[in-house]
Amino acid sequence: MLLFGLLAVGSAYAAFAPDNAVADNSAQSQQIEEGKKLFAVGCASCHGLNAEGGNNGEGKMAGPSLIGVGAAAVDFQVGTGRMPAMQPNAQIPQKPPVYTPAEIEALAAYVASLAPGPAVPAQESYDVSKATDEQVTRGGELFRTNCTACHNFAGKGGALPNGRYAPALMGVSEQHIYEAMLTGPQQMPVFSDQVLQPEDKRDIIAYLKTLETQKDPGGFGLGRLGPVSEGLWGWLVGIGLLVCVAVWIGAKGVRAKGVDAE
């Protein structure tokens, strides 16, 4: 009876479910295989053939292990052009991506197949097209609490020790901002869903996108860099004008004394 039951269940599954299941598994396997080939050509020299991490021949790490970083980390690093890097530096700058979107998906699928890790977020996770004023305000509060120490209150970026810096967040896609919070690239801390919930991340993104279109009500924004640019403007223009006035007064006084002497 048990054998009969197993045969009946197996036959029913084979009759009704195999086409979609086999097709999905085949497509996923093919994508992972393609990603593995791309990884071997473009990434293995630094990260190791099996993504276990590599060294530069002097015992120093050339590229960290990618086992467990997840598809989201790959999509961010490769999608923003930071990887593949020209050479290991204190900071890997953003540049135009080398791979196509399909190739990035394949690389992400391959790395994700090695070990569990953060997945590429769904579009609804970072879609802020219908964000309310309340959500934008809340996102600003969260951003000023967690992010301004490095990225500046207006998301313009800032300097960090040892030649590193927090990049500007203006013009960065919603998906990549979400993935950066989720994975913590380079020296950025990881804001997992336990630290910042998905709706918190979405509100922060809504705030940043509002800043991109926000005008400066006071006139010149001066790069929105805060007291540095404002102080420089004050010294160069304000103090400069005072010096010019002082020189003018002094010259006028000398001419007046000359006329009195004559």
From TrEMBL:
Keyword Transmembrane: yes
Compartments in which it is found: Cell membrane
Catalytic EC class: translocase
UniProt membrane topology term: Multi-pass membrane protein
Key words, A-Z: Cell membrane, Electron transport, Heme, Iron, Membrane, Metal-binding, Repeat, Respiratory chain, Signal, Translocase, Transmembrane, Transmembrane helix, Transport
Signal peptide bounds: 1-17
Key word ATP-binding present: no
Every Cytochrome c domain range: 30-115, 134-212
EC number: 7.1.1.8
InterPro entries tied to this protein: bc1_cytC-su, Cyt_c-like_dom, Cyt_c-like_dom_sf, Cytochrome_c_Oxidase_Subunit
Catalysed reactions, as listed in the record: a quinol + 2 Fe(III)-[cytochrome c](out) = a quinone + 2 Fe(II)-[cytochrome c](out) + 2 H(+)(out)
Residue ranges of the TM segments: 232-251
Source species, domain of life: Bacteria
UniProt cross-references to Pfam families, sorted A to Z: Cytochrom_C, Cytochrome_CBB3
Summary of subunit composition and partner proteins: The cytochrome bc1 complex is composed of a cytochrome b (QcrB), the Rieske iron-sulfur protein (QcrA) and a diheme cytochrome c (QcrC) subunit.
UniProt cross-references to PANTHER family, sorted A to Z: CBB3-TYPE CYTOCHROME C OXIDASE SUBUNIT FIXP, CYTOCHROME BC1 COMPLEX CYTOCHROME C SUBUNIT
Protein name, entry field: Cytochrome bc1 complex cytochrome c subunit
Phylogenetic classification of the source organism: Bacteria, Bacillati, Actinomycetota, Actinomycetes, Propionibacteriales
